[in-house]
Design goal:
Number of strands: 0
Radius of gyration: 17 Å
Strand content: under 5%
Shape: globular
Helix content: 55-70%
Number of helices: 4
Largest sheet: none
Amino acid sequence: MQTETSLRTPRKRYPAEILTPGDVERLMAACGTGTWTTDRNRALIAVLYRSGLRISEAVALEEMGREELIAYIRRHRL
């Protein structure tokens, strides 16, 4: 009997690319300024870079309050 996991095609894995502070500054500058979406995007980039979270982890943080967010990051990334 085949399981569901044996039917999946393996995902191609790429090596992690570490961004420099200059790379992050350019990303944040490319977001622009002046709207709530540009502020949100800049904040998301800062959280990802400073905490080391994966994008899926950062998206899951949407409903958390500040203290709960800090506790989550410390628990999962230290």
